[in-house]
Amino acid sequence: MMKYIFLTFTLAAGLSVFSQNDSINKLEEVVLYGNFSPALNSGYTVDIIRDSVLKNNNLSLGDLLQKELNLYFKENGNGMVSSISLRGTSAAHTGVYWNGIAINSSLNGQTDFNTISANGFDAVDIRKGGGSVLLGSGAVGGAVNLRDRLNFTPDKKIFVQLGGGSYSTFKGNTQGEFSTEKYFAKASINYANSKNNYPYPDTDLYNENGEYINLGVQTVLGWKPNKNNRFSLHTYYTDNDRNTSGTLSAPSNSKLLNKDNRFLLSWKNTGTKYTSLLDLSSLDEKYTYLFQKDDSESATGNQSRDLIVKYDLTWFLFKNTSVKAGIINTYSTGKGDHIGSVSQNNFEMYTLWHQEVFDKLIYNISLRKGFSSVYRIPLIYAVDLNYNINDKFSIKSNYSTNYRLPTFNDLFWDPGGNPELKPENSTTGEIAFGFNNDGFKLQTSVYFLDSKNLIQWVPTQNNGIWEPKNIKESTGYGIEFELQKSMEMGKNHLRGSLQYAYTVSNDDALGKQLIYVPYHKAYGNLLYHYKNIFMNYNLQYTGEVYTTSSNSQALDDYWLSNIEFGYSFLKNKMNIGLHIKNIFKEAYQSVAYRPMPNRNYELNINYKID
Questions:
Q1: Positions of the chain with pLDDT lower than 70, given as ranges
Q2: What is the three-state SS of 378-405?
Q3: Rg, the chain, Cα only
Q4: CATH numbers and ranges of domains, the chain
Q5: What is the pLDDT of residue 311?
Q6: Which of 233, 237, 196, 240 is nearest to 214 (CA)?
Q7: What was the pLDDT predicted at 12?
Q8: I want to staple 190 with a disulfide (CB 3.0 to 4.6 A). Which of 13, 87, 117, 368 is the partner?
Q9: 3-state DSSP call for residue 243?
Q10: How many C-beta neighbours within 10 Å does residue 170 have?
Q11: Which residues pair with 189 in a beta bridge?
């Protein structure tokens, strides 16, 4: 495994030295294209949530994404484990990234969106469609990227947020930024706690044992010694202490503790014909589960560490043509009560050809190949394009092959882990039509997804022990629709958005819809501004979902209405907002037997110093 790490460092250093010596055919402007850049994803849908939205919302990442977009989340009760599903796939098939570094758990392959606070970041990118070629394992249904932005203009800012709400909930966030022409520093602290003891609708029961305390600390340090080089250090620490709520049928006295510690050191080098980025990162994860929250002897847990070396080079051949290449080495270790002491090393390479033709056609062709100490990683490829028919109409299209690698739990869980597992593989394709004119936007997408070798845990004949096997196959397709309109009438600003998704995701063996995948998901949002006053109304519809593979049991569909009022003063440096959730007291469950709250309230105060 050490030879892969040595090879990565050698290639990264060699490419950096080679690229710095080039000064031929100067371009007017050189841009570093990140792997979530719309230019490199021209045939895909990429939504970007900006800092103006993030800084004014004291929400978990999952709550924010549901507020802003038509996305489906499965939540084990309010504040409990929350997982995303993009285009009918599972949480393990959605890649989650932090400044381009994959942070899905090496243990279970997922990210809990209730452990991440959204307002410490400067942007969140949401990319739909298969993305394994550029992004790696797991980005089958799509990907989410949490992004920090470095600002090297003299400035200083301080943000303070305080909030409180129903069920003895308190939230606080403070963030400071300082920058000069050479230095940048940002620090953010997020804190939330709640008794979370809401009544279960239409019953005499309460959400017992639902308390949680979440803490997140982020820092970013940047140094720009000259116009061609930029260095940055990113850290992100989270500590989540949650009791695990009971259900309608069974109480709970257990607790789940999660700690994540992430470091990222980056060097960006920009020349006249190229941009390069070298990332060195360390990701530590630890969880502890207590069957009895006050009894440490009942605890069980596992932990993992990922050491990642990643180098990316974009070479501009001509004004409208570039080649991008990258290498990444991930050395992962794990240990704990259920996986023992394990390790694996993955070395991967990718390349992409990008070209813009006659200012109308943009296309990308890409390849990726990897090598692992545990299994064989397949060769995959992708093609995407965007054709602008005129200044109003456009067509997007993409086709790709993708994969997901088995996790430590899949390979080594005791009892039942299967070290003979193969990576899952899938094929995806999409075509989208867009219209954009004078504040009016319309887009319709049609896609398909065909997955094979899916890992499924099944009981064996050996005392009924469950074991993962590559036996499941699924076929899916869907339609997505989005309509936006903005209007200004004097001091009145109005913006409306409607989104709808129809999703079919079949278990091929059973001919049934996969569990927890709604056929219908809809979203509406209306934002109104008048001077310093705003109102935001949000409507979400989630269709019926099946909870058994035979489709014999299901959760009812539901409508959620949320409204928010806000007022800004002190030259927009301070604003007060009141958020009323589930206005009409809808009784609903995201996961079977785990009711969510009915009407509840939250009051927030935001203050900015600059």
A1: 1-33, 461-463
A2: CCEEEEEEEEECCCCEEEEEEEEEEEEC
A3: 24
A4: 2-609 (2.40.170.20)
A5: 97
A6: 240
A7: 40
A8: 117
A9: strand
A10: 13
A11: 174, 217
591 and 572 Cβ atoms separated by less than 8 Å: no
Q: How far apart are CA 124 and CA 146, in angstroms?
A: 5
Question: Which residues lie closer than 8 Å to 355 by C-beta, 6 or more apart?
Answer: 320, 321, 322, 362, 363
Helix (H, G, I), strand (E, B) or coil at 67: helix
Q: What is residue 33's predicted lDDT score, i.e. its pLDDT?
A: 52
Pairing state between β 600-609 and 558-569: unpaired
Q: How far apart are CA 607 and CA 155, in angstroms?
A: 17
Let me know: does 468 contact 443? Beta carbons within 8 Å.
no
Provide the 10 A C-beta neighbour count for residue 118: 24
CA 199 vs. chain centroid, Å, equals 31
- Answer for the pair 433, 444: CB distance below 8 angstroms, yes or no: yes
Concatenated DSSP letters of 75-101: ESSTTS-EEEESTT--GGGEEEEETTE
Pairing label, strands 554-555, 520-530: unpaired
The C-alpha atoms of residue 454 and residue 473 are separated, in whole angstroms, by 6
Q: Which amino acid is at 55?
A: K
Cα dist from 406 to 98, 192, 376, 410, 450, whole Å: 21, 33, 11, 6, 18
Query: Sign of torsion, CA 586 591 594 597?
Result: negative
Residue 462 is predicted with a pLDDT of: 65
pLDDT at 6: 38
Q: Dig out the tokens for 598 from the structure.
A: 């009915």
* Selection from 424, 533, 400, 437 nearest residue 473 by Cα: 424
Could you write out the DSSP letters of every residue in 262-299? Answer: EEEEEEEEE-SSEEEEEEEEEEEEEEEEESSTT-GGGE
Helix, strand, coil in percent for the chain, rounding step 5:
10, 60, 35
- Give how far Cα 93 sits from Cα of 101, 143, 471, Å: 16, 9, 17
**Which amino acid, one-letter code, is at 243?**
N
3-state secondary structure of 355: strand
**Each residue's pLDDT tens digit, 99-124:** 999 999 999 999 999 999 988 899 99
Threshold 0.85, pTM exceeds:
yes
**Secondary structure (3-state) at 311:** strand
Task: Return d(Cα 479, Cα 504) in angstroms, integer.
Answer: 9
Closest CA to 427 of 357, 475, 478: 475
Greatest distance between any 2 Cα atoms in the chain: 75
Separation of alpha carbons 132 and 134, rounded Å: 6
Cite the beta strand spans of 415-532 per DSSP E.
424-437, 440-459, 466-489, 492-507, 512-513, 520-530
Distance of CA 495 to the CA centre of its chain: 25
Task: Give the model's pLDDT for residue 16.
Answer: 39
